[in-house]
């Protein structure tokens, strides 16, 4: 079973409590570095380490990476 790593980042829209997803399959985009995520960060989004997300989002990401 795969686990989330300290080096995994996502873009989180705190106001809407959503994560940025791929348009073609609705999976959350997981970036391999903070710098990579910073490049795609827009508007209300902020770069968040996957290991610092709420339990709700952590479970969704774990399900995604283990399918």
Can you walk me through this structure?
The protein is α+β, with helices and mostly antiparallel strands and 67 residues long. It is 27% helix and 18% strand. The chain contains 2 helices and 3 strands. Strands 2-1-3 form a 3-stranded antiparallel β-sheet, covered by helices on one side.
**Roughly how many Å is the radius of gyration?**
11 Å
State which percent range the strand residues make up: 15-25%
Kindly state the number of beta strands.
3
The termini sit apart by: 10 Å
Low-confidence regions: none
Trace the largest sheet across and list its strands: 2-1-3
Number of helices: 2
Largest sheet: 3 strands, antiparallel
Q: What is the overall shape? A: globular
Helix/sheet category: alpha+beta
- The whole-number mean of residue pLDDT values reads 96
What is the share of helical residues? Answer: 25-40%
**Sequence of secondary-structure elements:** EEHEH
Helices, strands, pairings?
Layout: E1 9-13, E2 18-19, H1 34-40, E3 45-49, H2 55-65
Antiparallel strand pairs: 1-2, 1-3
């Amino acid at each position: 079973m795969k686990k989330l790593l300290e080096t995994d980042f996502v873009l989180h829209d705190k106001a809407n409590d959503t994560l940025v997803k791929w348009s073609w399959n609705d999976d959350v985009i997981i970036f391999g570095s903070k710098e990579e995520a910073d490049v795609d960060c827009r508007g209300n989004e902020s770069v968040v380490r996957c290991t610092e997300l709420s339990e709700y989002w952590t479970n969704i990401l774990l399900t995604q990476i283990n399918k």
